[in-house]
């Protein structure tokens, strides 16, 4: 149990300078040089801080390794007057050293239990290596694949993102954060609406109505906090023309007062000082003032609090009580993690050697990678591959170990299972020829000649294509989201051989697939699949595992459609795709409105047939929920998993409602010939939305319910809700 009074008493003993230093977070270079005498070296000059300030700082980020962190913590405690331990935080986004698929890929698994397990594994490896807090989960809702950070989200749907947010928090924190030293505190980010950055450009402006904010962008953050998430990180963007880090309405009024969050609020890297170029602070002093007034507890990697808070307090502009409440929250988190009694917590070099990148953890990563891949095309049943077929593995990712993703941090690329290694381990070397064909962005005639020679001898060409990991992630935004031209040319040239072509994509975003989808016979979206990626893909290609992933972010037909997402509004002049000559409707003249591949889409090596959609009755009330049933049958020759999805539409609302909204789903496994009745229950809560006055309530009236294998291919029935 957290001893709050103990922390209150400790706070009373602290000087103002010590309190303010607790609100400062410094990066690894300040501590990597900590020696046994307590001398700390680092870029102190850049921040204008002293060695004493470093010694009093409350937290550090970007450090890991049990021996290193034990030494730094012991050195820190020896030099800290009151013996207040450091908090060690890090970006453990989708794995520590055992790297799991990127979060967007994990979302495509639709497997909440396995997602929770992936976070549990990441937490254990991080904790035994000395980390206390992870800057995850990232739950920003994403609709624009130009934004590089879509890879960190689980997709475009607020309900599904909320479910994954809860799963990740459970996995990271467990049931007893104080005593379970193999767990870490979670920090949900980026609060709020960072995924709506204009033009898909990182750090850019966000402007949306409060209804849009509450309806789509806030639910996943709230779900994480309802699950007990200990920390929140501010976003870089503006919300209602105010940067989040200075946004009192967002942080004080909504997060603190309305939602009741009393945990730690931390800025993103340098975000407080960035209030100056944003144009809401004239200088560092004003930036510090606005951030503390908004409720930001910890300042990451700038020193405006340290430099200016004493004068702000002395002048009466800032009440010292604001500092006290921020420091108390930081101390309480340290107490909750048990750091005052056990400052080394889970850091254990022996256990670290035993569990980090263990075979058990790699097996879980491999399972998640297999479940995260999405089969997008399988014309003529080209997949699974026959073990007797001669394969030409060609492309920049044939031998590439850059499959961990941009946020893998402590992951080691050389440890990743490459696709060529996995295929060679699965079939005879005489059946597989390997050639690069092109680099990611360039193709030489020598490369192509080698690829052509391999392809001419093959029965099936397997192309391993994609983006370099730096082409997505933070700062990895792209206006053109096609594959680089060199790879498109490689496909086009090999297509002339008139042989079956299977493409495997390694990327961090939905792509514009022109020149790919229309040219290949089979297409497997592998994302950045993590440490065991090559092994998982080989299992999928040869049918040892049946693909079960389903998209959680739509693939656009063209980048010109972006943002394109399933839960769109209808408009007053909706376009009927069958009416190709219609003009004065909401449409493009040169492209369809619909994405190439919709939310929820994915193929299997077997086939599933849906029976009649049955409603328990046509009238629903608060006291009498609606039961929706459908029989699903595996009509193929392989066992497989299907994701049965239920959507609802409010036909006439107080404000415009989306054409479809995901409300429930069920992932089921069926043997060949097996049938299963899937039952969903729709309650009054499923029908609620934010009205014109922002009240979150439901309306009586007519509703449509849809059930199917994705957001496009569904059966529909109608019912009435009566209050």
Automatic annotation (TrEMBL):
Phylogenetic classification of the source organism: Bacteria, Bacillati, Bacillota, Bacilli, Bacillales
KW Signal (keyword) present: yes
Entry EC no(s): 3.2.1.21
Residues in Fibronectin type III-like domain copies: 642-711
Keywords: Glycosidase, Hydrolase, Signal
Similarity comment: family membership: Belongs to the glycosyl hydrolase 3 family.
Stored Gene3D superfamilies: Glycoside hydrolase family 3 C-terminal domain, Glycoside hydrolase, family 3, N-terminal domain, Immunoglobulins
Pfam families noted in UniProt: Fn3-like (PF14310), Glyco_hydro_3 (PF00933), Glyco_hydro_3_C (PF01915)
Catalytic activity: Hydrolysis of terminal, non-reducing beta-D-glucosyl residues with release of beta-D-glucose
Name of protein: beta-glucosidase
Record's keyword annotation contains Phosphoprotein: no
SMART domains in the record: Fn3_like
Entry coiled-coil feature ranges: none
GO molecular function list: hydrolase activity
Highest taxon, organism lineage: Bacteria
InterPro entries: Cellulose_Degrad_GH3, Fn3-like, GH, Glyco_hydro_3_AS, Glyco_hydro_3_C, Glyco_hydro_3_C_sf, Glyco_hydro_3_N, Glyco_hydro_3_N_sf
